[in-house]
Amino acid sequence: MPRTTFQELLDAGAHFGHLKRKWNPAMAPYIFMERNDIHIIDLHKTVVKIDEAANALKQIAKSGKKILFVATKKQAKDVVAEKVQTINMPYVTERWLGGMLTNFPTIRKAVKKMTTIDKMGTNGTLDILSKREKLQIARQRAKLDKTLGSIADLTRLPAAMFIVDISKEHIAVSEARRLNIPVFAIVDTNSNPNLVDFPIPANDDASASIAVILDAVIASIKEGLGERKVDKEKEVEQAPKKAETARRGAKPASADGFDEEEAPAKVVAKAAPKKSAPARKPAPRKN
After folding, report:
1. Which among 186, 235, 271, 281 would be 20 to 30 A from 84, CA to CA?
2. Residues 146-201: pLDDT tens digits?
3. What Å distances lie between residue 223 and 15, 70, 89, 142, 160, CA to CA?
């Protein structure tokens, strides 16, 4: 069963592309027709691509790895932030900081700085500072939280990225490609789908179009997380049984070094002294 339907995408306006003069020739396989100098996207192919991307993201989520969502354009940032928070995945909806992936250790230092400031507030360090210093630290904390607060839980590079509008987020795409991180993206007719691993041809300017695609993607990730939880619960339930089976399967050894279940004949054979070889008769002397 498809993650979303042709009619849902049509109602959301996902079929509207850009003006013909702004198109990228690499998008030709996904363009259905041209109307009023605007390219129309083939939504049948969009449905197929959504299913491919959703299934792949489900497996990544099931493995317990993180998926980073990137959408800094006005039409997408609020939609992405609202929906991604439900699955507890990292996201970037403010400005993409250059080197956020390729210079990840520096970004982690900035995140740790936020944690340090929070500790200063709890252990009373801020109380001994002047009002001016407190204000400066508070502003610094707010600035860091705005740009990096949504990726505070990202302790290592993400296993995959989902991007809205790869033309606008070209820096994020190039960093992901350099680090061989799989990229899932909504690609409009003015972009090159060959730059990403899982392109979803659709309108990336309409909030309704973005929301419909995100709903399908988020639902698949939730399925993966749910299956991971069930598998973990089964492992916890089966752990005592496996331990008991392993304990019963081990054969205890006796003090003599023989297994208690060893055949008596073998034990007797091991314990019995070995027979000495018969003495040879001397050979007769030659005259």
Report:
1. 235
2. 888 888 888 899 999 999 999 999 999 999 999 999 999 999 999 999 999 999 99
3. 27, 21, 14, 34, 17
Count CB atoms within 10 A of the CB of residue 8. Answer: 18
Range list for CATH 1.10.287 in the chain:
102-153
Q: Which CATH architecture has domain 102-153?
A: Orthogonal Bundle (1.10)
Is the pLDDT at 216 greater than 90? The verdict is yes
Nearest residue to 196 (alpha-carbon basis) of 157, 216, 169, 223: 169
Residues 44-82 pLDDT 10s: 999 999 999 999 999 999 999 999 999 999 989 999 999
**Protein fold of 6-98+157-231:** Rossmann fold (3.40.50)
Q: Which residue has the tokens 């996201």?
A: 91
Q: What are the Cα distances from residue 39, in Å, to 6, 181, 211, 217, 268?
A: 17, 30, 21, 25, 91
Longest dimension (CA), the chain: 128
Q: Residue 179 in contact with residue 190, Cβ under 8 Å?
A: no
Place of tokens 């198109």: 23
pTM: 0.79
Rounded distance between C-alpha atoms, residue 24 and residue 191, angstroms: 6
Residue 77 in contact with residue 100, Cβ under 8 Å?
Answer: no
Does residue 158 contact residue 65 with C-beta atoms inside 8 Å? yes
Asked if residue 22 lies in contact with residue 182, where contact means CB atoms within 8 angstroms, the answer is no
